[in-house]
Amino acid sequence: MNLVDAGLYGVLVGGAVAVAAAVVLRGRARNVIAGLSVMAVGAFAAATGLAALAGMVGTGLVIPVSLPLVGGLDPLVLAPDRLGGFFLLLAGLVIATSALFGIGYAHGAAASRTGWTGFAVFAVGVALVPTAADALSFLLAWELMAIGSTVLLLADHAERQAVRAATMWYAVMTHLSFLLLVAGFGVLIAAAGGTSWSRMVTIAEPVASVAFVLLIAGFATKAGLVPMHVWLPRAHPEAPSHASAAMSAAMVKMGLYGILLVTLRLLPTGPSWWAVVLVALGAISALYGILQASVQSDLKRLLAYSTTENVGLITTAIGIGLLLHQSGQQAAAEVAFIAALLLALSHAVFKTTLFLGAGAVLHATGERDLDQLGGLAARMPVTALTFGVGALGAAALPVTSGFVAEWVLLQALIHTDAKADRLLAVVMPLTMGVVALTIGLGLLTFVKAAGIGFLARPRSEAAARATEVGFTMRAALVAAAGLTIGLGLIPGPLAQLLAGAVGATGIATSGLTGIQLGGLGTVILDPLVLTGLTAAMLAGIVIVNGIAARRHPRREVDLPWGCGGERTSPRMEYNATSYSEPLARVFGASLNTRRSVEIEHPEDAPLLVSGMVFNQETVDLVEDRVYVPAARLAQRLGDLARTVQNGSIHRYIGFSFAALLLVLVLVTR
Amino acid sequence: MNQHLFAQLIATITGVLLLTAILQIWGRSLVRSIGLLSVQGAALAALVLTVGLNAGEPQVWLVTGIVLLMKSVVLPAAMLRSAKLIGETRERPTTINPAVELIGAAGLTLIAYIVGVPLAGPDPDPARQALPVGFSLVLLGFWLLMIRRSAITQLVGFLVLDNGIATVSFLASGGLPLTVELGSSLDVLLVVLILGVLVVRMQRQQGHTDITELKELHD
Questions:
Q1: Does residue B219 belong to any structural domain of this protein?
Q2: β-strands A61-63, A76-78: how paired?
Q3: Which among A642, A646, A657 is the nearest to B146, CB-wise?
Q4: Domain span holding position B49
Q5: A647 to chain B: closest CA residue
Q6: What digits encode the pLDDT tens for the residues A571-619?
Q7: What digits encode the pLDDT tens for the residues A403-422?
Q8: What pTM was computed for the model?
């Protein structure tokens, strides 16, 4: 038994201990012991993942199965390969951090027996999905993950109505995903004659395309790609924040792992339209997600839409990689795949930071509406700093992992020889435009999230009374933010490991820490050196500034816009809605924004204004135009069925009776 | 066993089974209905005994005992108890004319015959020849479910249906294995006990057990 096998046992045992602790213990002890056990699950998963990513191969856990009617099946095998190892590492890091946060954060329903049990089951499920080496154990782990997260989400249903609606959406979409996967894997299993991944690599065309469509639809639903993203902006805000972090950063990635599994491992020789489908899905999701995020004022809803955006970017990178691979530009294709994996890990760490930060804000103020926040930087310095780091990552700015990942993606796009292929000549420039627009809007969005939320003066009583959160929550925030910066400064070693996972050859560590994309000429990024140089240059400016400040001490300046008075109030500040108003105007058609202004007049003077109410809401276009009509159609069909099914028992018996007579007559005819 | 005697016995017993079912449809008294059910159960036990002895099955006495106990004693007793608890003795008046009910029953018996004869196969033995009786019991049980309103008679109909299934299986297979018979008997017992409780609760809540009044659908 080597490290990989031992780690897998560790994950299972940790999960069992967590469930036992959640059931047996109560109060504070439950939070601590169950939380630490789930942390252990995460730690074991991360260690196992790292070992597998580095190329260690274990025998894995092999569970022989046989069903009475089907006969001997391939055994259930849990043995991660290098790609699975990467996603296991990612999931492990996220789970460990969010469990640490949960120890201090979980209260009410999230700290209940159900809440912690759901979290533990969910954590084990997420960790097992990338270790599966056959379709059956993959689906089992997948369903474990789905059930755990649904229970976790539903924990607070008694208190808040919105939780029930959100869970309903989530449960429906997650089951849709599961059904599509069962159908897709069913097609593959029937064609391959077994459930093991290793049997499925030789599947020929029409069957492969059918399986591709079914599986990609299923995985896209879990990953939250448009138009199957509707559960994300509902489920993430309503879940407890450590669960939102784990769901958004780890579970959604399993959908991406599935897409990579299908396109790289199971069906590696697909036609080029597969790649175009992926690029289109990804590009639409990226744009739509960031547009929606840019106008949201609910912090967690904003983060949920940003998840759709990032997943879209990653899917685009995968699609570009496939497209380049098919046109024979191997070096650029490998860079694109590396970019996809870097984006995935980068999103995992910064989105964990952001969701945990949002959780800390929610914990301290009870608010997640940006229009009610503000002024938290002074009151919650650690949260503000770490959230800022996460926002830098989400905006893809330097010293964070987001910058490195998007830099690598852009290198793949720039270094493509688009003239070689007509398809590439069309797809590449469009993708470049989408990625550039997405990055720009992302910057605006996260300036809003961090700036409106944490700077300026508090916009509500709750924000004014906020205090810094407890030690475990701060520790989790610092850990997640530290990972974001660490990956941003020292990306080289990780990139080299990832190169092994996708079978790339040209990627190497440059110097100690940088990335060298060898296949594209000498393209090198060394953030540590760059940061050092920048810091050295900035140091000069800071010194000059300091000297100047000492020479001219600070003067009190009266506010120039107070109209001579001092009547400034937080209501005069820019808030989230006003900040994003230009965006809502420019992209109004695709955002489906509804706004209303009501003006109140005094009774005796209809020309004077005594008050104004401004209301703006953004209804998800896809939900409004696709899902609501579909639900209405189902409702109408259900009403039709009611004329047949009127509640009379005699009528029901009559139906069975008639059916029986019909069958008897037909059989003996 | 003498084949002539065997044929006579089968004919008599299946005759009793069919007659009791028809009388169920004719009558309106709940107590008599349950009594008829007990007679039908006894006839079924006799059928098991006859078929089993003819086939020379070793466990025939045990199976006969179980069937007699369940179908003729335990189930009717349980139903009688429910009926006493709710204090109903007569079927509630229906909208269907009794003559129509009987004509319907006759029609169903004909259908059962038409359907059952081909299933018996070419040149059947006396047991297989009687298969249509089993089918007609199933159909008549269904018919009872259709035309009756009281919850107790619904139970009666269900049990007639079950007796029909048992009859078909005994006649077609020449005796059931012990475990299968045991399993299905316990199943039916459980259903009757649960429904007995439900019937009493219906009576308590609504003052009657008319199932046509149970029309409201709930989520």
A1: no
A2: antiparallel
A3: A657
A4: 3-213
A5: B215
A6: 778 888 888 888 888 887 778 788 888 888 888 888 888 888 888 888 8
A7: 999 999 998 888 888 777 78
A8: 0.78
d(CA B100, CA B28): 15
Dig out the tokens for B175 from the structure. Answer: 């005796």
Q: Does A467 touch chain B (CB under 8 A)?
A: no
DSSP string, A17-36: HHHHHHHH--HHHHHHHHHH
Reading the block at residue A234, the tokens are 């509902």
Vertex A391 angle, CA A167 and A441, to 5°: 85
Is residue B92 a part of any domain in this protein? yes
Residue A249 CA from chain centroid, whole number: 4
Question: Residue A509 forms beta bridges with which residues?
Answer: A515
Q: Is A473 exposed, middle or buried (0-12, 13-18, 19+ CB in 10 A)?
A: buried
In a domain, B89, yes or no: yes
Q: Which of A619, A167, A577, A156 has the alpha carbon at shortest distance from A362?
A: A156
Q: How many domains does chain B have?
A: 1
Note whether B111 contacts A668, CB cutoff 8 Å: no
Q: Where are the domains of chain A?
A: 627-668
As a three-state string, the secondary structure of A205-217 is HHHHHHHHHHHHH
Q: Which of A656, A661, A662 to mutate to test binding with chain B, by most B CBs within 10 Å of its CB?
A: A661
Residues constituting chain B: 219
**What would the DSSP string read from start to end of A415-451?**
T--GGG-HHHHHHHHHHHHHHHHHHHHHHHHHHHHHH
Contact A96, A39 (CB under 8 A): yes
Please report the sign of the dihedral spanned by the C-alpha atoms of residue A659, residue A660, residue A664, residue A665.
negative
Interface of B with A in 165-194 (CB under 8 A): none
**Would residue B124 count as lying in a domain?**
yes
Enumerate residues 6+ apart whose C-beta is below 8 A from A277.
A216, A319
Whole-complex ipTM: 0.80
Tokens of A615: 């209301």
